[in-house]
Design brief:
Blueprint (H helix, E strand, L loop, with lengths): L1 H11 L13 H5 L5 E8 L7 H10 L2 H11 L9 E9 L9 E8 L3 H10 L5 E3 L2 E5 L6 E6 L2 E5 L1 H11 L10 H10 L5 E4 L1 H12 L6 H6 L5 E7 L4 E8 L3 H21 L2 H7 L2 E6 L2 E8 L1 H8 L2 H6 L2
Helix pairs in contact: 1-3, 3-12, 10-11, 11-12
Length: about 325
Amino acid sequence: MFRNTLLTLVVLITGGAAAQAAQLSSDARTAIPHDVQQLVVIDYRAMQNSSTAMELRDRVMPPDLKQFDEALKRSGLNENHDVDELAFALFRPSEANDEVVTLGIAQGQFDMADILANFKKKGIKPSVIRTNKVYPMGKTGMVLCFVDPSTMVFGGNDAVKAALDARDGNTQSLLTNSAIMDAMRSVESEALWSILDQKGTQTMMKQVLGEAGSVADFESVRKRLLVSYYTMDFQHGVKFDLTIATGDAFAAATVSSLLNAAVLYRKVSGSESEKAALAGTDISSSSGKLAIHFAASDTDFNSLLKSQLFQSMVR
């Protein structure tokens, strides 16, 4: 479940190049609960500029994220004009629960009077959480709430309630999560970016390494994987840059060695399209950080989409 959601959120940020940064407003940040496992922020206006990105999205988007897409369309918003930035936050409702729920955050210039008039015309009535009006999103089972005229949160009832609890100061918000906030400074100037917390980073690396992730070397450094963040760019081919903060040079070097071994194995045993794609992967470590850079032409990446390697990743 985590793998599919992670890959799909990667897909949702692969929307072509944009000139401006995709930044979260202060109101958006306060509406995100503290215990975030993954945060993805995209320039929504640029999503449909890349045919490669759209093909990737169509291949891996699972039903749960398709519901988000459909719910947004049914909300009374014109998503191609009203929404400027779109974010998804996967967060844990409680520290004792490993399950995550997904919250959507949309930022843009919303014509509140027109949207509310449309709701009224359709007979859509809100429920109220303190002073917040929460509206159902068609028959999707999701709800939405405008926390201000330019910021909307949407998702399941529990996700939106948790967002409003954080927004109203009843629970801690993203602003008190120092690890995520510190990582955000490294990527928020980009148009397409994502951050994973310690647990999300460890899970991601375990999945990426596959069998290599079960060896003693990885277990010795697993807990030192602190946070990770990445950006993607589809302007000229496909570019992906991932940084993993480990806190010490030994851990970064160890994981770098494991990843290089995994890539080397795929270069030897993979298909021609996999070999061509992995030829554009560079892995290095410095000052306690592991850096992964991937670049491929549209043609090579499209071939990778059809490969056995890619299909095994999105099961």
